[in-house]
Amino acid sequence: MRILVIEDDRKVAAFIQSGLEQEGYAIDVLHDGAGAGEQAHAIDYDVVVLDLMLPGRSGLQVLRDIRARKPSLPVLILTAKDSVHDRVAGLDGGADDYMVKPFALAELSARLRALLRRGAPRENVLRVADLEMDTVTRTVRRGGRPVELKPKEYALLEYLMRNSGRPMTKSLIIEHVWDIHFDSVSNVVEVHINSLRNKIDRGQPLPLIQTVRGVGYILRDTPP
């Protein structure tokens, strides 16, 4: 899952980014409202965390920009403005949820998961052949056997399962599973693909994670 955090307080932004990245999310951060609407439109985000008091362009203006172009993109307002008037303005302006600072990261994470479940038509249980992923409990099984995954392995597998049957290039994988500015010459994708293969495909008659030469990787339930 890929999240855009728009927060001018760099310490708060770093706290959010660090916490959510440990859960396997790919996080992009902006520190002002100028250009935020454009970035939310240009990149395929799953949810936006938006502060209201931003330099360059206010949070409500950014929210209007997002709603004009991506009306279904979930947006959670995270702000120090805690009056009823501010809450009403934010929700009436198109926000899907509203949280007040100070906040607990665990609650923010739970609310984001709720928005992801509530948002698009997204399946909570993904299946490809005998591989099953429950995105609510964040558990994975192959042939009924539990598979223990690290956060980035889980995020990579979820991306491949949501796009099963379609070849995914290395650049697409990096954009959706890692940060937008990730070093594209790194072999991190290959390392994580190999790790997933060891945990999911080793000893199985049909390997689900397959290499598409010259393109990237595909997860499918048919032989190469």
Index terms:
alpha/beta, Rossmann fold, Arc Repressor Mutant, subunit A, 2 domains, 4-stranded antiparallel β-sheet
What is the fold's blueprint, element by element?
Layout: E1 2-6, H1 10-22, E2 26-30, H2 36-42, E3 47-50, H3 59-69, E4 75-79, H4 84-92, E5 97-100, H5 105-118, E6 125-128, E7 131-134, E8 139-142, E9 145-147, H6 151-162, E10 168-169, H7 170-177, H8 188-200, E11 209-212, E12 216-219
Parallel strand pairs: 1-2, 1-3, 3-4, 4-5
Antiparallel strand pairs: 6-7, 7-8, 8-9, 10-12, 11-12
Q: Describe it for me?
A:
The chain has 224 residues and is α/β, with parallel strands linked by helices. It has helices at 10-22, 36-42, 59-69, 84-92, 105-118, 151-162, 170-177, 188-200, and strands at 2-6, 26-30, 47-50, 75-79, 97-100, 125-128, 131-134, 139-142, 145-147, 168-169, 209-212, 216-219. Strands 2-1-3-4-5 form a five-stranded parallel beta sheet, with helices on both faces. A four-stranded antiparallel beta sheet has the order 6-7-8-9, covered by helices on one side. α6 (151-162) crosses α8 (188-200). The two termini are 27 Å apart.
Give the structure's gist in a few sentences.
The chain contains eight helices and twelve strands.
- What would CATH call the architecture of the largest domain? 3-Layer(aba) Sandwich
β content, as a range?
15-25%
If you consult CATH, what is the topology of the largest domain?
A: Rossmann fold
Record the strand order, biggest sheet.
Answer: 2-1-3-4-5
